[in-house]
Amino acid sequence: MSKLTELELLADLEKINDQDRYHCKTTYDIFCHAADEYAADIAIVEHLTADRDEVANTLTFATLTKKLNQTAKLYQAFGVERTDVISILLPNLAETHLSMWAAQAVGIANPINYLLQVDHIVEILNEVKSKVLVTVSLDQTTELGKKVHEIIARVPSLEHILVLDNRYGPSNNNRITITDFNQAISAQSSERLTKTSQPKADDIAMYFHTGGTTGRPKVAKLSHYNISFVVQVYAGFNAFQGKSAVLNALPLFHVFGVIAASLSMFFVGRQVVIMTPEGFRNPNTVKNWWFFVNKYQVCWFPTVPTIISVLLQQPDEDIDLSCFEHAACGSAPLPIELKLSFQRRFNCNVTNGYGMTESSCVVARVLPGYDVEGVSVGNGIPYSRVIAAHVIDNKISRVCGSNEPGIILVKGPNIFQGYLNESDNEGAWVDGEWFNTGDLGLINNLGHIQLTGRAKDLIIRGGHNIDPQIIEDALMAHPGVLQAVAIGQPDAHAGEIPVAYVVVKDPQQTTAAELLHHCQTHINERAAIPKRIEILDSFPLTAVGKVFKPILRNKATEFSVNALFKANHITAQVSAEFDPEKGQVVHIQLSNVQDKDKVATLLIAVPVLVDYQTTL
After folding, report:
1. Closest among 429, 233, 461, 254 to 356, alpha carbons compared
2. CB 489 within 8 A of CB 495
């Protein structure tokens, strides 16, 4: 009998309704299932330093679930009800899991990137009207402790703060109680929640912030079934891996680290090894990564392209890696040469999945036992629908044919319940049912999805649309380039011109002039040849390892404006920032106030908003 195609396999799976196939309807169901099936097995291994001789802390599934119940009952003692929000401001720790999953059992969990500036954390907390905050301590000698003191003063909805380290005493604010987390949960019953107090499938489980580090946050609402559905689909795809342990250094405030790399593993009884509170930001994590792959006999781990690149540059060691077979890469597009180099060196298979917060982590992935060309992200997951389409005014004007590029639209049980702020839902939905991912891509006759870029990342040069991927692919084909990002630089004549930022292996060997010549001979689309290439030591990254393009756009904007000023003998300090509501803003501090009219004339055709500040 011939092997089914991916589309035939997916159709076969869908003969059984998803509600009948997947029995866990909530995240609490998943932990009850795991405690029943794998009670004595290790669920969490916690490394605080990732030193090779470190003795790790461990929790069995039985203990994890009992502590989860105790934490949930503590929240209830605080008066938390189903729609109340518990915010988690923690690095990667066992307590992060306890506080997050227990929050979903009785209310709504809101994990927050603790590395954000305090203003943005406060914005998120106020947006969700957080009632309880779980954090490390009130120690004002630490950055996080300082942030917590500001939070206390600026978040009026907050009633309770749970701290892991209570040595630093309570705040002077009588409105908020400060409680020792571990001491308080130990006083609670570890019995399971009664059926009537357990969550339901359509209850909101999590609020994830998706708005980045500037402007008002966008908060995505994920239901219990959104998450538990994806967990069971993902676990089914990975069943061939057995119960191999998983190293997780992804942040526990991001869907990849929370859903795919943690909860999907708990569901099938696999150990999740927490690789330090800082994750990949701890130098020991990468330095000793392969040691721990061998120690725990890891066959699969989740990662991001940036870390693939870093691991590839690690020196060889005499470590047996025969256990290691697969790396699942997400969060950003994976360059084909990087993928192939990693596969060759470590004799493994690397797949690049596709997902986002709004899809509860997963839209598509390569199905086990199947191959795709290049860096295709595979097929849409079962019970979901993914199409490429032309969209006009939030309506599908035409669904694309095979291999025809368009905007990727998706719907299914994995798609979130919309944004918390209703205004953020404007433009998010097409024909009222499809979520607009904002990604450009195409789908072939096998259902394989190939992403080609972001609609919002298009460089528009004098009305000519340029996909930055064309430039990035050409640069990544150069043997001296490690990373490349192409963006649009504001320009008085063309609106935008393409420029590129690169990280090279050896700046002494590879120059910007050489790379520019390389682009001129390797990019067929004349308008896409970058006008400027700048070599950087490293790229600015988000906490999950994505290149943070707004900083590069700011850099390009400052370069463009400064070049105009230099050519016209104007002295000024220039700084750029992206405002989600206003767009690209340039702050200008003139040396001579009489130059203001001249500057206004120079910048009239540059697509930026000018903010004049006090004269130098």
Report:
1. 254
2. no
CA–CA dist 227, 18 (Å, integer) = 13
Quote the CA–CA distance of 466 and 454 in Å, as a whole number: 11
Q: Which CATH class is domain 28-369?
A: alpha beta
pTM for the whole structure = 0.81
* Maximum Cα–Cα distance across the chain: 82
pLDDT for the residue 615: 66
Q: So what's the pLDDT on residue 600?
A: 84
Place of tokens 């929000």: 85
- 36 phi, psi to nearest 5 deg: -70, -40
CA distances from 4 to 146, 352, 387, 559 (A): 57, 22, 21, 54
Q: What is the pLDDT of residue 204?
A: 99
CATH number attached to the domain at 458-539: 3.30.300.30
**Whole-number Å distance between alpha carbons of 283 and 482:** 20
pLDDT tier at 456, thresholds 50, 70, 90: low
| Predicted confidence (pLDDT) at residue 153 exceeds the cutoff of 90 | yes
State the pLDDT at residue 170: 65
In whole angstroms, give the CA distance from residue 375 to residue 95. Answer: 36
User: For 89-95, what is the mean pLDDT?
Assistant: 98
Nearest to 237 by CA among 9, 544, 5, 11: 9
Terminal Cα-to-Cα distance of the chain (whole angstroms)? 79
* DSSP-derived pairing of the beta strands 406-411 and 385-392: antiparallel
Q: How far apart are CA 128 and CA 135, in angstroms?
A: 17
Both structure tokens of 180: 């020792």
**CA 408 – CA 355 distance, rounded (Å):** 12
- Per-residue pLDDT of 232-254, as tens digits, reads 999 888 877 778 999 999 999 99
CB 420 within 8 A of CB 128: yes
Output 581 or 452, whichever has higher pLDDT. Answer: 452
* Cα→Cα distances 93→251, 305, 335, 372, Å: 10, 24, 32, 36
Strand residue runs (E) in 459-566: 459-461, 464-466, 481-491, 495-504, 532-535
